[in-house]
Amino acid sequence: MPEIEEVPPASAVSEPPLFGKYEVGRLLGCGAFAKVYHARDVRNGQSVAIKVINKKKVSSTTLMSNITREISIMRRLRHPNIVRLHEVLATKTKIYFVMEFVKGGELFGKISKGRFSENLGRKYFQQLISAVGYCHLYGVFHRDLKPENLLLDENGDLKVSDFGLSAVTDQVREDGFLHTLCGTPAYVAPEILSKKGYDGAKVDVWSCGVILYVLTVGYLPFNDPNLMAMYRKIYQGEYRCPKWMSSELKRFLSRLLDTNPATRITIEEIKRDPWFKKGYKERKFYEEDFVEFNDDKVIKDDQVIQGSTSFNAFDLISLSSGLDLSGLFDESYSSARLAVEDSPEKIIERVSEVAKGVENARLKRKKEWGVELQGHRDSGKFVIGLDVFRLTDSMVVVNAKKRAGDAGFFHELWEKRIKPAILGQHQQGLELQASTSGSSCC
Q: Which residues cross the membrane (predicted)?
């Protein structure tokens, strides 16, 4: 999360409370299209978090339909281990999500100080599985589970947040799988690295397994400074458990981190596992009646709308810090990755053919399977680096990066010439990343 920006409390400035209800305070964080503030409900003094979205920045039809769909589905979910959305408000230019304020901070901050005992790790893992299993029952798949997206409340209980990369069942294709590549590299499931589609529930279980390893060991099971080397470890399931880890936990982790999604443990099987069941009590809760409101109107109307609700939601829309979609709107990003079934030799050969058609440019070979496209334009020198890494016997990952020059030129050359040439007949290749952040793939 970005460093907190201190701002004067709302009472110290002339602006009245937002909608007459909320005194807006310090900035808690920001993403590509939204900012999140701490605020106080003037009616009862309760602390809340308010996410402010600029409508102009999400003006595309696709993003708007995604927002509407996710609100429609998420309002039906309510769970004690999921961050709650209190209400949705809107004006001509902005949308406001008033959410539960979880003041304990990220679980990541706590685990960064040292590993947990198995008992404490089990407590948090039980709460995580309770929330994730509930989501799956409603056809919602998180797809970016990691300690940074798990918050702790004042009682030390876990709250799942940041569903910016979530998918729902109506996104599943006719083959029964999801196909969009999403997630944070160290937590991404091996099947996401292929182009054959994946089960959203299975990839969430894998991420839960990585989280459990981190909680009880204190570091990542799959880690390498070279991203492609880390992907290979994930794909092949190469990790080690410390000698001091209990045999029960080792066995349980091996089922969570099974590289074969068909045999990977399910949520129901997790709940029956001997290690998991110790001290576990399924939390009972009752869903209250939901106050209906028109989701389309909240998003699209030019009137001020106060859609008070009692429904729960997560981080409803794809506007979180973990998802950088800036490439849809500007030319600020300068890297891209593509997974495709082919050989490194053929990839380099195709890029060489592209280079011949670029004016005032030459291709320079680097060590192993790497090249640099160098040249001059009116705006100055440009250098585009391209490296090919073998992920499996039949699949490679192509990593392209602007090393000098204009980002807009890099984007245009990649999208219109380099990527189509690399794909060739492989039009189903997966684009792993196209952003500057590098923290998440989508």
A: none
